[in-house]
Amino acid sequence: MAKKQQPLKPGEKILFTVAGVFIVFAILAFIAMQIFMAKSDKPLFATKTHAALSAEGQQGSYLFRVNGCTTCHRALRNGTNMGRTADLDGIGSRRTMQWMYAFLQDPQKNYDGETIDHLPGERSAAYVAKMPKEELHAIAVFLSELKSDQGSSSSPIPPKGESPFIDSMVKTWAPKEWKSKYKDIRDDPEVLKRANEAAVEEMKKP
Ligand code: HEC
Fold first, then answer.
1. Is the pLDDT of residue 17 over 90?
2. 43, 49, 165, 195: most buried by Cβ count inside 10 Å?
3. Does ligand 1 lie within 6 Å of residue 70's CB atom?
4. How many CB atoms are closer than 10 A to CB 186?
5. 125: Cβ below 6 Å to ligand 1?
6. How confident is the model at residue 206 (pLDDT cuts 50, 70, 90)?
7. Residue nearest to atom 27 of ligand 1 (CA)
């Protein structure tokens, strides 16, 4: 006869049940998400950047891909996505074509801080500044045509009035008298435009 197994202690039963419930829930949620993604015709995340490329912009897009920019940057679904500077989608709403052209030719002089990879010398992106000027110009035009929509994380303009998250934060944290004292810039296209221009100016400051 097999040795009699020790019954589980109540604490162990609870522990195993809780762990089991977690695992089953995770598996079910994963399956549900996969089914939802496969059935839905909408993308999981809304795209908030767009680009309408001119002829030179298209040339720049090509040069961007063949010159290794995509090892560190991302634009139009090409390349890596490592962070804010790395993701160049929408950059055209934050930087001007002139800024981009100046940066690419002389990164250290035109960047708002210390450059890491674009620093002239031994750094991995130092080669960029040595590329032919007309190629850098085309790339700068390309990048300036990568626009971000209002409310995207790469846009200096906050989302339109209907952002439930911002509304609830304002409701929770802003003192009542602010409603009469201040204007919500999301409601006024003129104020919004000026705020945007000010933000873009701010970004360009050394
Ligand atoms: C080895 C990685 C690397 C490569 C390759 C690279 N970059 Fe960068 N890039 C960076 C980093 C890091 C920054 C942030 C500034 C810095 O540290 O140099 C940056 C910043 C930039 C910026 C400024 C973004 C902003 O708004 O601050 C532009 C524009 C840019 N790179 C364009 C390019 C282009 C065009 C190429 C290809 C010709 C390229 N980069 C190749 C790493 C790289």
1. yes
2. 49
3. no
4. 21
5. yes
6. low
7. 85
